[in-house]
Amino acid sequence: MSKNLRINKNKFIDQTARILFKFNGKKLYGHKGDTLASALLANNIHLVGRSFKYHRPRGIMTCGSEEPNAIVQIGNDPALTDPNVRATEIELYDGLEAFSQNCWPSVNFDIGGINNFLSPLLPAGFYYKTFMWPASFWEKYEFFIRHSAGLGKSPNKPDLDLYDHQYAHCDVLVIGGGISGILSAKLSAEKGLNTILVDDKNNLGGSTLYQDDNAFKINNENSNIWLNKQIEDLKKLPNLTIKKRTSVAAFHAYNYLLARENLTDHLSLHERKNKIRQRLWKIRAKKVVIATGAIERPLIFSNNDRPGIILSSSIKKYIDYYGVKTGENVSLFTNNDSAYEAAISLNKSGVKVKVIIDIRENPNSVLTEKIEKAGIKILKGYTVIDTNGYKRIKSFDVKKLSKDGGSVVGEKITYTCDCLGISGGWTPMVHLFTQSGGKLKFRNSDNVFIPDENKIPSEQISVGSSNGDFELDDVVNNTIKSIMVFLKLDKSNYEQLNIECSKEKQKRNIWLLPSDKPMSKTKPFLDFQNDSTAKDVKLALREGFKSIEHVKRYTTTGMGTDQGKLSNMHALGIIADTTGTNMGELGTTTFRPPYTPLTFGAIVGRNVGEFFDHTRRTAIHNWHVENKAEFENVGQWKRPWYFPKNGETMNQAVQRESKAARESAGILDASTLGKIDLQGEDASEFLNRVYTNAWSKLAIGKCRYGLMLNEDGMVYDDGVTTRLGENHYIMTTTTGGAANVLTKLEDYLQTEWPDLNVYLTSVTDQYSTMSICGPNSKKIIKKIIPNLDLSDDNFPHMSFKNSKIDNVNCRIMRISFTGEHSYEINVQSNFALNVWEKCMEAGKEFNITPYGTETMHLLRAEKGFIITGQDTDGTLTPSDLQMDWIIGKKKYDFIGKRSLYRSDTIREDRKQFIGLLTDDPKEVLEEGAQLVESLEKPIEMLGHVTSSYFSPNLNKSIALAVVKSGKKLKGKKLIVPMENKNINVTITDTVFYDKENKRLNA
Amino acid sequence: MLNFNSPIKEEKKYNDLKIIEVEPIIKINLRSNKREFSTKIGKILSILPPNEANTSSGNEKFNLLWLSPDEWLIYSNDNKMTLNDQKNLEDKLFNEISKLNQGAVTNVSDHWIMINLNGNKVYDLLSKSCPYNFNDFKNKKGSVAQTIVNHVDVILHNYEDNNLNLFVRRSFSEDLWLWLNDSARLI
Amino acid sequence: MFLINCPYCGERDQSEFSCGGEAHIERPKQPTELSDDQWAEYLFMRKNVKGIQFERWNHIHGCRKWFNVARDTSNDKIHAVYKMGERPPIK
Q1: A154-158, A310-314, A657-661: the lowest-pLDDT one
Q2: Does A361 reach chain C within 8 Å, measured CB to CB?
Q3: Which of A30-44, A89-103, A114-128, A206-220 comes out lowest in average pLDDT?
Q4: What is the ipTM of this complex?
Q5: A1: pLDDT strictly greater than 50
Q6: Residues linked to residue A288 through DSSP beta bridges, in sequence order
Q7: How many CA atoms lie within 13 A of A476 on its CB side?
Q8: Which site in A403, A957, C2, C75 is 20 to 30 Å from A846, CA atoms measured?
Q9: With contact defined as beta carbons under 8 Å apart, do A605 and A280 qualify?
Q10: Would you call A902 and C39 a contact, using CB atoms and an 8 Å cutoff?
């Protein structure tokens, strides 16, 4: 186990810097520049996790984001642990701790492994079929199934890491820092375009970065040397931003892309302090270049999932980039030339390649010749039929393929090995292209889906291997050619490139390789993470599933955290072969964002904790805080709910506040009400049209209550409007309705009545409003504004005066929402705190009592005043609310008028607004409680309670409610059935207190 | 004399960035679609309201920002203007415009809070939560944009290079101030 | 998130706008003279097409102006933006 498989040549890994990390508790060492996967492989560890369904041992298979098997849990801090992290992507840092997932008690001895032996009993759809009948048993199965489901452990404490967001706007966004991305970014930035280049790795260059074989040359230099020079030049360009460790997660319409930048995941824990962990970039690009490359395909044969079976291009990267041997007895299995590149690299590094199994009958290229010259054996026209070894591959069996590739013939040959490289050709990464709305076309010659150049949804282009160009000469030449057209360049420095590329494009494609055993005895895995096999796909087809989307869901192929990056093409191929369909017609499953999993932290950014939602504060807020108010959220506003004194409960505080307001004086911060300033010669006419009542005759200096409807006749908002001048009004709206009312009124002015000369300006925040009510309110106002004549003659109810408090102008309205004699002071917000303090000071001798929204609600309920949004819910007309008096019947039109006599709105059995008294005056109803007439089944719900309080001023419980035909049911007894009792109530008038409105002028 | 209480009473400094509330400043909202309006404003303020979208006009005393084809915002450069002088200016405009049915004049001095952001990192900071494309805005002195920062409505005025004034409704100002300072430390 | 070219402010992110539903539904000048069915036609009936749909949008976090947009509901492409009171420039 503790072998060191590191070779000593390497410029990408700093072998002088040793890094300690732990895997499943065991101390190991790696180097700066390693991924967890490369460091594990260097320690000869292949077995990393267990598969999802059968708990089969699984090892590292790839070196990138497509990794299906090597997914680990990072860290064990309950707040910071990260599940399902790909070992092939996470960079090694000092102190990294990783754990295998989906195994118990350990990855080496996993009880769940028994599922592997039960696998004949667990085919596709097993759970659907077995646990659905009888339906009532699901509850019993569910616990056990859920318990065994899931991969990693989610953190169970709040995330301590910081995440944020950043918008960026650019001319050109290039996704992918491989050779085609580098060339695209360079051409773009040299042209002077504002360019962003993103790459998910920590080094630019893609796979060309370590392609140092002289079979690949550009202008007589090895391709890696040539590319490095381009990268050095690129870094000097001023209008280019390079974002490394940045992965594009989503490509939306209008070239709007989301990219996650990893800022600290590669740092040791102490270096991360106070730094942003991940930043989500929201990029708006005029043009997008997709250069995301391609992923190597595996081959599908029995037991192709054993640890030690690795994609050939990954073997090459581990040896050439990380300097890590993936084994010491390596063989390769391929259907194309890519495996020969790996063989050359292995050979150079002194790793003996025992044999190359090539399913092609006549592979011949410079590469194959090179290999043959090196004395490596090639078996042409052969296939691997099975592998052996449990926690690591030990050997594999080979047979000759029949001419048509449909079966195997001849003698079985067995080779020992500790690593088998596989290559099934390449799949272009078209995820982002299709996410953006692009359509794919199928290229029969090498069985790939590539972007259809006639179905590109936005200003974008795919280049390089993500566009289906896999060979160096095609990649470079076609990238340059198409970027020049795309960016409208007339010349480039790259027109006379001399490219030598020795790879042969010949490929022999067999989606499911034959075996000498019957299908039922084989285990050819398609989706390694979800354990679905070629057998499962065939079973699904036999059972009648035809659509690729249905097969996917039935077999769970492609539904793991890797989203089937390795498996989807083979599943499609097998479906096409089995059903005799052309793959182009079959189409693909839908590629959905994100391309690789995103953390929730990155998605929410800083909008957590105190930034989860906005807090609007009134100018008097700090006073409320200092005076121990409990707050209620009303929309985004923080409003004082009640002001508890000496440990009072909410109920005690509200009873005290309510009594004080009626007996002496109360004061309320009403600043949150919406305020709209109306000016213009048609202001009165406008009010006539938006409110139900008449406005033309309102005298200057007077106030009037108005009710606003929707066109459907339902009550929308209400408030008091004051005429400040001939053509000047100030309208108040409800707190929650303020923004919507303004938008709605602007809408009518701009679209339906553009002929009206009226201008609306929000002044909600300009003025703070404090309402002082109660029999002593007059005396308090007198103390603050001594020179204002407060006599009823000069300043009657529903009127307003301009005045001054000290040197500051203010507007005083005599309006009341409590039924008491009361005043509203409106003053510029920056002076409001001081005015409030003055009111408190002046009111001291009258025990002026600050009250909150709860007392306000109680006091108005005693008077039967509605609160829109509490007593109304968008289904009540003014008539339903018993407010027929406010409908200007003589007016020709107003918003919603026509709807007031639709057949539905004049029904007599509509729910109507009424008062309720409980038989037991101490019993307070629950708001929302249902009202019924009798308890005999079936019980008809007649309505519900909308507001309910214990009134200290009446010393009994009161409630408001809506009840079918309620208007005619005064005196009727109803029942409020509750969980453990039934409460008897009687329908009453909605006004409980001071029916004659005597107190307004008291 | 009543005490003046603005919601924010601090000045914050970060690397390449300074954030400060500038108050009290008179601010007046103007609305009109009448022809004579422009001339009247020119006479009173010695500045013409800009017709071009997303721009402003100004002199040493006042700035006049375009908000929409029939809406502008005046704000003064002077935070020492007395309440009386403010009132006089408001009355003058109101009498000349609103009273004569030439448009609307509304005092919004306390509706908006003005925060000055100054330094090389100004646009990096705003772009953390503002979808607006600042590429042209930042190079054009006097540019105006109404947009959202951290989901809150704001008016932005490019006052000088890397020096802009941000207007936010008073009730949201403390919330946005917290956000600005939280994000400024993360640049 | 689309980009919407506000006819007054220029191109802005969709998050600055709100959609007000189908365009070119004029409020009847004389509602009182309409039958219940005619009024219901105005009040409730909307086309909701797949393809190019004419919609009202408001630059609610910008200039607060309403305008019309011709948007393809199948791919969110905006084919035209035009002011209130103007006829659609495309079919």
Answers
A1: A154-158
A2: no
A3: A114-128
A4: 0.98
A5: no
A6: A173, A460
A7: 22
A8: A957
A9: yes
A10: yes
Pick one of 3.40.47.10, 3.40.980.10, 1.20.1340.10, 3.30.2270.10 as the CATH number of C3-83: 3.30.2270.10
Contact between A793 and A800 under an 8 Å Cβ cutoff? The reply is no
**A786-806: per-residue pLDDT in tens?**
999 999 999 999 999 999 999
Query: In chain A, what is the straight-line distance between the N-terminal and C-terminal CA atoms, in Å?
Result: 94
The C-alpha angle with vertex A828 and arms to A827 and A829, in degrees rounded to 5, equals: 105
Measured on CA atoms in the order A955, A957, A961, A966, is the torsion positive or negative? negative
Task: Match domain A328-423 to its CATH number in 3.40.50.2300, 3.10.520.10, 3.50.50.60, 1.25.40.10.
Answer: 3.50.50.60
pLDDT at A885: 95
Which of A437, A750, A898 lies nearest to residue C31, judging by beta carbons?
Answer: A898
The single-letter code of the amino acid at A278 is Q
Using a CB-CB distance cutoff of 8 angstroms, which residues of chain B are in contact with residue C12?
Answer: 131-132, 147
CATH number for domain A515-579, candidates 1.10.620, 3.90.70, 1.10.10, 3.30.230:
1.10.10
SS3 content of chain B, % helix, strand, coil (to 5): 25, 35, 40
Name the CA dihedral angle for A41, A44, A49, A50, rounded to a multiple of 10 degrees.
Answer: 130
Secondary structure class of A722 (helix, strand, coil): strand
Cα–Cα dist A157/B35, whole Å: 63
User: Would the CA dihedral through A870, A946, A660, A653 be positive or negative?
Assistant: negative
Say if the Cβ atoms of C32 and A898 lie within 8 Å. yes
- DSSP-based three-state secondary structure for A453: coil
Residue A970 has pLDDT above 80, yes or no: yes
pTM of this prediction? 0.94
How far, in Å, CA of B57 to CA of B181, rounded? 30
- Is residue A898 helix, strand or coil? helix
pLDDT at residue A399, rounded to an integer: 97
Instruction: Give me the amino acid identity at A69.
Output: N
**Phi/psi at A911 (nearest 5 deg)?**
-70, 130
- Which residue in A has a C-alpha nearest to residue B175's C-alpha? A615
Identity at A472, one-letter amino acid code:
L
Dihedrals φ, ψ of A314, to 5°? -75, -40
Quick: pLDDT tens for B97-137.
999 999 999 999 999 999 999 999 999 999 999 999 999 99
Of C12, C13, C64, the CB nearest to B68: C64
* A638: CB partners within 8 A, 6+ apart: A615, A616, A617, A618, A621, A631, A632
List all residues 6 or more positions away from A773 whose beta carbon is below 8 Å from its beta carbon.
A661, A665, A666, A667, A668, A816, A818, A820, A821, A822, A823, A859
Q: Measured between CA atoms, how close is C49 to chain A, in angstroms?
A: 20
Find chain A residues with C-beta within 8 A of C32's C-beta. 892-893, 897-898
Contact yes or no for A896/C32 (Cβ under 8 A): no
- Is B104 part of the contact surface with chain A (CB cutoff 8 Å)? yes
- Please give the structure tokens belonging to residue A837: 């303090």
Q: Alpha-carbon torsion A641, A646, A647, A651, what sign?
A: negative
* CB-nearest partner of C85 from A712, A754, A898: A754
Q: Can you list the positions of beta strands (E) in A686-798?
A: 703-709, 715-725, 728-733, 759-762, 767-773
User: Among A167, A170, A254, A759, which would you mutate to test the C interface (most chain C Cβ atoms within 10 Å of its Cβ)?
Assistant: A254
How far apart are the two ends of chain C, measured CA to CA in Å? Answer: 25
CATH 3.30.1360.120 domain span(s) along chain A: 669-858, 864-1001
Both tokens of B141, joined, read 């002195």
CA atoms of A340 and A370, how far apart (whole Å)? 9
A-B CB pairs within 8 A amount to 137
Residue with the two structure tokens 């970065």:
A209
